[in-house]
Design brief:
The chain contains three helices and seven strands, in the order ααββαβββββ. It is an alpha+beta fold and about 130 residues long. Strands 1, 2, 3, 4, 5, 6 and 7 form a seven-stranded mixed beta sheet that branches.
């Protein structure tokens, strides 16, 4: 059995790998990091399944130029974890450059001894 601190570090490492893979266009890494039933919401309000999101990355509908994800806290309960923080990014969406600055919530689940992203949801900053 792992300690809570080990779990937090493993989730943070998975978050780092996910953002690195987004920037690198590493679809193989993202395929491993996203749970089969993943739900990925975007700041536009569009929500993709794992397959839809990977297809959009493959077609270069989304091209991440810069992405940062400062984390405020990680909560682990059993085989589930939430990462509360922020996402700032420069991304091309269907060829149109956009700058994103949102609060973010990522939900991770542990399956087969590894952490996978189950859901991601951005939220507009308070005005």
């Amino acid at each position: 059995m792992t300690s809570r601190d080990d779990d937090v570090q493993a989730v943070l490492a998975a978050e780092d790998r996910r953002y690195r893979a987004m920037l690198d266009g590493d679809l193989a890494a993202l395929d491993e990091l996203l749970a089969p039933g993943a739900s990925y919401a975007h700041s536009s309000g569009v929500r993709d399944t794992k397959d839809e999101y990977l297809a959009k990355l493959r077609s270069r509908y989304y091209v991440y130029r810069r992405a940062e994800h400062p984390v405020e806290r990680v909560e682990v309960t059993g085989d589930a974890a939430i990462v509360v923080g922020r996402m700032t990014a420069d991304v091309d969406v269907d060829g149109v450059p956009k700058t994103i600055d949102n609060l973010a919530l990522a939900v991770w689940t542990r399956a087969g001894g590894r952490w996978q992203l189950l859901a991601y949801a951005p939220t507009s900053l308070p005005r």
